[in-house]
Amino acid sequence: MYKILILAYLMGSSPIDTQQTFQMEKTYDTMSECKQELLLETKDNGTYDVLWEFVEDGNFKWDWILAGCKNNETGEEFTIEPSYPNGKPKELENIQGFEI
Q1: Which of 10, 25, 75, 79: CA 20 to 30 A from 31?
Q2: Considering its fold, how many domains does the chain have in total?
Q3: From CA 84, how far away is CA 89, in angstroms rounded?
Q4: Structural domain includes residue 31
Q5: Is residue 55 pLDDT above 60, yes or no?
Q6: Backbone angles phi and psi of 57, in degrees to 5
Q7: Contact, 11 vs 54, CB < 8 A?
Q8: Given CA atoms 58, 59, 64, 69 in this order, what sign does their dihedral have?
């Protein structure tokens, strides 16, 4: 079973202190299905649908640091990160990964 995980932090706060891993409800049978859902872009705003839904559902209080598909039984994982035109902010450099 594959699930979509999103590592996020509370905007306006320390990413280290407020980071949390969120799990999306739906699960997938294959990594391919999970990646297809994770990378889906149907809006004309340059964002992945699942991440836009996450930010919107959180009333724009959370920002994502890492998102991906993971199978806890096999350890298989695929991750994506936001792009940073001016380089990754220093406060995000020591962020590890998912803790689920």
Answers
A1: 10
A2: 1
A3: 8
A4: yes
A5: yes
A6: -65, -30
A7: no
A8: positive
